[in-house]
Amino acid sequence: MLSNRILKILAESFAIKGLCLEKQPLKSTSKTKAAGRDDQVIHYFVLASDLALKYLQEVEKAQGTVGGVLPVAAAATSSSPLPPNTEYRIGAILETVLQRAPIIMIKNGKLRQAIDQYRSVLRAEETSSTQSLRQTMSRQLAEVLLRGLAESVYSDFAPRIETKKQGKHWKPTKYAGQSLFMPRTEQEEILLLLFISETMAVRNAVLDRSPEFLDARVHSYNNVTAVYDLLCITLSRFGQFHILCESFERAMKFAFEQYHVWMQFSLSLLSSGKHSRAILMLKECMRLQPNNSFPCLLAAKVCLENMGHVEEGVEYAEKALEREKLHPQNLLAQCHLVLGVGYSLMALQRRPQGKRSEYKARAFQSFLRSQSADPYYYLPEVHLALHYAEVRQLSNAVSHAKRALDLNPEHIHSLHLLVLLLSAQKQHTEALTLVNEALEAYPNHLNLLYTKAHLEDYCSGPDEALLTSKQMLLQWKAFYERELKSNFTESKLQRVMSCNKSSFLVRSCDFSDRESGHSVVAAARVEQALSEAMSSLHSAQQARRGPQSLWLVQLQVWLLIAELYLKLDQLSEAEACILEATNIYPLSHQLMVMKGLLHEKRQEYHEAKQCFQNAVSINPLHVKALQHLVCQSSYLLPLNIFTMTGLLCCPCGKVYALWLWTELTHHT
Question: Do 58 and 72 contact (CB within 8 A), yes or no?
């Protein structure tokens, strides 16, 4: 057995020999000799690495600090804000060789050999001298697995039992035993490496703000942020944003005045659905970079799209626009666009027609400014098409929708909008042809299938539409089964279905129901809360598995099938579909409308009126519920009472008032 002194001398000798051989220029340009020289360098570096690790283990074994644990007395007497410096035992030469050996292997195309070398070093029993080195090499191996190795060619981590052979005493002692966690997939190994690196980096972070520790603080901060950036890349691939939020919670202790960490934390909170906390993080980002318009723009988007705080969202959008004009960042078109969306939502919340027209005009001007700021940006064209559709200028709406598709042919929402515009122009056959072509490219898109069912109902009758709606149920079942089999429950399906959530709540063939479609966001929150409260009263009811947005899609499919059965006068089948929908969200206003239609078919006018009143109490702007409520009143009240009530209370404007008058006259 060699002494510790001889071990260190041998390790440094092999290291120096390898470094000198690497620096020595070749006398010939032969690729064979160059490859042979690189193999020799790698051989010396591997020997030096093994001897260095063995030396450190023997030294700490002799001093009683096995496993990298410092003596209690030494740890208690240290008052430095810096992490304990124990690298004097190994030296700069050996530390360089330990990190350089796998790098040379990668440069020579020996990726698997480099991965094995990283694993070999990390499997060695830890010493206090190699803690920072282990943190660095864990991060480097994670980077190699992320960037340089395909998942299909990954070889799992299965360490072999070393047999007795010559030179075994030169090898470092490695962890062994049945209680060790062995990663079996590439993802498990990457996450294990990053969590190990994160733990060490956070523990060694320098928190002292004194000027003399500036260099050490910057160095430790760079190490930690490198690990967190890799964690963001890895966990985002699997939708595990709640784990990412927990990691950034631990990172807050060294995030003082660091914009990058605050922004990453806010993005992870947004992705995990914690919008209120994300707004607080974005406010801190605004303070840290007062000239940056992106945090304001992102906060405006969250307020408008996720939280329903329209006025606050408009304020953030105006602040973003102000910053963008003073300090351009190529976000001018986006600022005008978000501001226009905010004005559109404010117009929907204003009851006086004058205020509503004012905000609609502001929104239209903002969309035009966004279009002029970036003529090749497709989203302003989409919103201009929506604006023209709302004011019934369908030809202009179609031209802008086609322009949006020219700029971005893969934008499915522009394609869906064009289908709806064609149906609004009574070109139902062309719309059905277009939606069938779109379904060839997107066969699993439930919004397109939903629209196709309505178009088939109009063109071919309810029988053919029923086949499409049943196909939607099969698609939903496939989505649901994949969700349950997945190990990451809040992953891809949640993102896919979230973009479809609002579209399902709007009738696909009636642009005049725009107010109802936008106000349904608040109504959906009310009905979900009421449904959950009512469901909690039934202890026998089992909890539904999967995200709520997925069950909301199934609700819409059942209501569509029920509507088709009502048109076929198959009331028992329609009632069965309504019962299925009731089990999902008992107090949905759309479900109450469907119940009212069923009672109306059975000429049960009192029950139908009660259902429509319940629907209007949750969503006062639901046009179909208002229409049928006034129509039901024609059977129960004198003409002058229900006529004036319908015309005065309808919040939908003069067009609906005239339409209601026509309906009332027809029913009387």
Answer: no
Q: Which residue has the tokens 């066969």?
A: 443
Q: Is the pTM of this model over 0.85?
A: no
Q: How far is CA 665 from CA 643, 660, 661, in A?
A: 9, 9, 6
Half-sphere exposure of 208 (CA within 13 A, CB side): 13
Cβ–Cβ < 8 Å for 339, 321: yes
Q: Are 466 and 563 in contact (CB under 8 A)?
A: no
Q: CA 28 to CA 574: how far, in whole Å?
A: 86
Torsion over CA: 275, 279, 282, 284 (sign): negative
- pLDDT per 10-residue tile (average), the chain, 668 residues: 79 86 76 79 86 82 58 41 52 84 86 86 80 84 81 64 55 76 81 85 75 78 85 85 85 82 91 90 92 93 89 93 91 93 87 82 93 93 93 92 92 91 90 90 86 89 88 83 58 34 34 41 49 43 60 86 89 89 85 88 86 85 80 58 45 43 43
The phi and psi torsions of 374 (rounded to 5 degrees) equal: -145, 90
Using CA atoms, how far apart are residues 240 and 238, in angstroms rounded to an integer? Answer: 6
Query: What DSSP letter does each residue of 609-649 carry, written as one string?
Result: HHHHHHHHHH-TT-HHHHHHHHHHHTTTS-HHHHHHHHHHH
Query: In this structure, are residues 229 and 261 in contact, taking their beta carbons and an 8 Å threshold?
Result: no
Given its phi and psi angles, is residue 653 left (phi above 0), alpha (psi -120 to 50 degrees) or beta?
A: left
How many DSSP H helices and E strands does the chain contain? 30, 0
How many CB atoms within 10 Å of residue 311? 11
Question: Where do the domains of the chain lie?
Answer: 1-69+81-157+182-204, 445-587, 602-668
Long-range pairs of 28-35 with CB within 8 A, sequence gap ≥ 24: 35/108
Q: How far apart are CA 153 and CA 156, in angstroms?
A: 10
Q: Rounded to an integer, what distance in angstroms lies between the CA atom of residue 3 and that of residue 10?
A: 11
**360 neighbors 330 (Cβ within 8 angstroms):** no
Beta carbons of 563 and 594 less than 8 angstroms apart: yes
CA 504, 348, 586 angle in degrees (round to 5)?
Answer: 40
Q: 3-class SS at 174?
A: strand
CA–CA–CA angle 647, 650, 652 (5° rounding): 120
Residues 6+ apart with CB under 8 A from 555: 581, 584, 585, 588, 590, 591
Cβ-contact 171, 163 below 8 angstroms: no
Contact 557/551 with Cβ under 8 angstroms? no
pLDDT value for 214: 77
Question: Residue 619 and residue 625: Cα distance in Å, rounded?
Answer: 9
Q: How far apart are CA 625 and CA 243, in angstroms?
A: 43
> What is the C-alpha separation between 114 and 6, in angstroms, rounded?
28
Contacts by 396-405, CB closer than 8 A, 24 or more apart? 397/421, 398/422, 398/425, 403/378, 404/378, 404/379
The span from the CA of 397 to the CA of 401, in Å, is 6
CA-to-CA distance for 595 and 559, rounded, in angstroms?
10
